[in-house]
Every structure is written in C-alpha cells, then in structure tokens.
Amino acid sequence: MATNVAVSVRLLAWWWAEVVTVTEQQDGYDVVVIGGGAAGLNGALMLARARRSVLVIDAGTPRNAPAEGVHGLLARDGMPPGELLELGRAEVRGYGGEVLAGEVEAVTGAADGFVVTLTDDRAYRARRLLVTTGLVDELPEIPGLSARWGRDLVHCPYCHGWEVRDQAIGVLATGPMAVHQALLFRQLSSDVVFFAHTAAPPVGEAAEQLAARGIRAVPGEVAGLVVTDDRLTGVRLSDGTVVARTALAVQPTMVARAGFLDGIGLRAVAHPSGLGVHLPVDATGRTEVAGVWAAGNVTDPAAQVGNAAAAGAFAAAQLNADLVGADTRAAVAAYRRAIEDPFSARMEARVAELVAGEHRHGL
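-> structure tokens emitted (363 positions)
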C-alpha cells in the first residue's frame, strides 16, 4: 500500500504543478488532444512539428500509474511512467504545443467548431479532436485485489512477465482469454496454476493444452488473497483452501474513457475480443464522427506504450493531412472568388494598370 500511496502523491504533485494558465488562440486551436498519455503526447508532438496549434488536456490519471516502470519500449525500458510523460510534455512544449491539466466534462459542436468543456467550466474551441483518454481496468470484485494491482497482481506477460519470471504464478480466469493467458505465463515460469474461479473448469482442447504444459487447473471460487509483509503469498478459495502463489495474473474488463463524447454522438462499443469496450476507428484512426480521431488504449485495449505512441503519431499525421485538405479547399475557393469577381480589388488594380500603363503612378 505504501508504494501505491507514494505513486499517488507523485502524480498529484505533477498534476497541480502542471495547472497552467492557457490563453486560447483567437480562433481556437487546430487540434485539441484529449488525454496526455503516450498516444496523446506523441500525437501532439507530430502536430506541433507540423506547425499546428495544438492543446493537450490531461486529467492526470494514466492507466499505468501503479507500475514501477514501462517495459518493452526501446531505449526507455524500465523508465517510471511519470518520468516518461514528463519528458513527452517537455518535447511537445518545445515545438509550441500547449499542455493543460484538466478533466473534460463534455464535447459539443462539429468539425471546424468543436467546443471542449472542462469540469471547472473552462472551454476551448478546436477544428479537430484527437481522443487519447485510454481506459479503466475494472478488476473482479475480490477483496484485496485492487491494492496489489501493478505489483504482484498483473495482467500482461509482456509488460510484467519478466518481473515475475520463475515465480509461483496464478492465473485467475475472468474472461474468454484466460487459458491463452495461462499459456503465455507458462513461458515465464514452470510453476503456473489456473484458477477457474466462477467459471467451469476447462474441458476438451483447453484442458488438454493446460495439462500438456503442466498447468494445474484448480476449481472453486477465489475469495481473497493472502498477503504477508506486503507481499502476496497465497490465493484463498471460498472453501478456505489456500494455494501458495507469489504472483497472480488477471484479465480485467477494459473500459474506454469516452463518456464525455456523448454530446457528439460518439459512444464506446463492445470490443470484438470480448475483453471490454472501446471506440472503433478505421485504419487511419478516424472515428465515425467527422473531425474526430482516436488512438491508443481508448480504441485498442491491448496496445502497450510503444504501440499507443505509434498509433498517436499515425493518427496525428492523418489528421494533419485532413486539415491540409480543408485549408487547400478554402484557399482554392477564395482564389476562385478573387479571379472571377470583375470588381474585386485585384481586378480593379489590373484594369487600372492596363488603361494607364506606365503613367498610372502619376495620376
């Protein structure tokens, strides 16, 4: 618990330190990025480097806050999540982008006229939106689980697997990917136990796979954890049986943070994997609402930090291309009006030049 408290204190300290006064540009921003994690900051970085006016609004609640380090990210493996984000914010600001601490309450309007309203009633206008708010991991309602999250209660073998290698690992069945999750963790330890929990024990091919890999399947509902000296030491079943374990893997229900988009008709839907809900997007990151893109865990629940950052950059590039197209169409329309209007200032100047010739300056 002390580790979680320390992490929370560090996050709050950053969040309050980042409460800055942002003076909105006269015509609003080209893009408001909602969410200041890896996807949002990398997207903002791309947009700022493309000379777009961009504002990042960050609620300061990153999904990976309980983790001690980010893993699987080249040249940054093991870096504390808060430190990585601090570097990202500095890079965005270095190119003229703005980062603001705040929580979005609602979004209204449409492309070229979105209004993003915060919970403290501040409001910002944007031509386009990039949604990178991530997701919330909803854990099973088992006493003690949330206090161990990100420590000895883990979910991703690629994010946390190395740290629990060769330990006594348990896998709590909570969804359709439970057997697959157990097989992945078997790669990291020869001592893996599969807890069926409220589901029926595996049968058929699934049972055969577990047996072939030496994974013991334990029936019965899990009632709680056994923690000794702030370390997980066992999993307690409802009948009182305790199975010694030092790490427990669980698949949470992953829920996209997207409720604030209801005002523009954009809502999260069930993910095809059955693991939670997400915002669906096309191959470019575009949502079904014109002018709105999304990237990172809000649309791809399984994305790690590197994947999320890459998705943010790619969506930002597509978004910038869309703005370039809009700017060009507006410029062409203005150009056509100018050359087609015989009484425009440009045409009158041209007529004067043709009539007066070289004497026009002396008239």
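Residues 1-23 have pLDDT under 50 and may be disordered.
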